[in-house]
Predict the structure.
Amino acid sequence: MKPGLSQARTLIERATSIVVLTHLRPDGDGLGSLLALTLGLDSMGKLATPVLVDDLPERFHDLPGVERIKSAVPSSADLLIMVDCSSMDRTGVAPQDLPRRPDINFDHHPTNSYFADLNFVDPEAAATAEIIYDAAPSLGLPLEPEVASNLLVALVHAWLPDSKCVAQDAPHGGRSNGTWRADGAPI
């Protein structure tokens, strides 16, 4: 288990209401990671709220759980998780407008400013979704079909030629389709 994951699991287990936030101008990795984590937390019996303070690109309107996305940050939460954000300003939300300081940060950008209490940042990962996928067993996060589908969308997006991600250069190279299929993603 990576350092900090047991602490993250304890924070998740103790929380009732959790806000999950991603970045402005969302891409497949940000949205897929946002929704995968939200749906996984729901499966654990948590009240998870996905937040995107920007317009949702039309190409992502069919992702599982997309109808749950809120455009404003709730005024309170027991836990705040950021996904695919290299810094706080990428969210479009001023720190004083957040319900609390970020507790957990999952990201793959080498420019990450390590702004949360627990930071799971791996610049060698193809996408933030890969980090969440690898952490899921340690966090107790179930990889049900809708969770796996969102993670797969995130990873595939990182490999698209017009993506600003650097997945093509990532040493891990992402998961094989067989692994994702085993977790229920319809490919």
